Automatic annotation (TrEMBL):
InterPro entries: P-loop_NTPase (IPR027417), T6A_TsaE (IPR003442). PANTHER family: TRNA THREONYLCARBAMOYLADENOSINE BIOSYNTHESIS PROTEIN TSAE. Keywords: ATP-binding, Cytoplasm, Magnesium, Metal-binding, Nucleotide-binding, tRNA processing. It comes from the Bacteria. Gene3D superfamilies: P-loop containing nucleotide triphosphate hydrolases. One of its GO terms (biological process) is tRNA threonylcarbamoyladenosine modification. One of its GO terms (molecular function) is metal ion binding. This is tRNA threonylcarbamoyladenosine biosynthesis protein TsaE. It is found in: Cytoplasm. Belongs to the TsaE family.
Length: 168
């Protein structure tokens, strides 16, 4: 794992990275991150098609008690999960033709202080999504994947630091 802090004007960015050898490690990293999340957090998931973003989300959801299948909401755009600790909304905007379609979906209703939002392909919703607290990049590397977390807000910094301390 590597970690760095960079100062850019008034914002300090905290980043960390870890190698994930296989699917089980990807789910475990998602679970560890899920244990660090608090309501109100917005997570952008970045990575190429098939990199493991949805597998990672399965781990996040398992931290809240979900044990069933987790499918990518490619056609429905959003899959809601209700837990006592928080409502989690898993978005996949890959097939979104126009970001304005999010208005018809009632996108603003999903981002509340009691919700956690996991957003795959956020670039396709640009201009209609709230800013991310951090970005989770899942990138192919060797026979496995590399997970990079990049904090973009104070909330994000807290999550990334807690994850780093936990997985250290």
């Amino acid at each position: 794992m590597s970690q760095s802090t960079t100062s850019q004007s008034t914002i300090s960015l905290l980043t960390t990275a870890v190698y994930l050898a296989d699917e089980a490690a990807t789910v475990a990293a998602g679970r560890a991150l899920g244990e660090c999340l608090t309501p109100g957090v917005v997570v952008y998931l970045d990575g190429v098609l098939g990199a493991g973003k949805t597998t990672f989300c399965r781990g996040v959801l398992s931290a809240f008690g979900h044990s069933g299948a987790v499918k990518s909401p490619t056609y429905t755009l959003v899959e809601p999960y209700a837990f006592s600790a928080a409502n989690i909304y898993h978005f996949d905007l890959y097939r979104l033709a126009d970001p304005e379609e999010l208005e018809y979906l009632g996108i603003r209703d999903y981002f509340s202080s009691d919700a956690i939002s996991l957003i795959e392909w956020p670039v396709r919703g640009e201009g209609f999504l709230p800013s991310a607290d951090f970005i989770a990049k899942v990138l192919p590397e060797g026979h496995g994947r590399r997970l990079e977390l990049i904090a973009l807000s104070k909330k994000g910094m807290s999550v990334v630091q807690t994850f780093t301390d936990k997985t250290g």
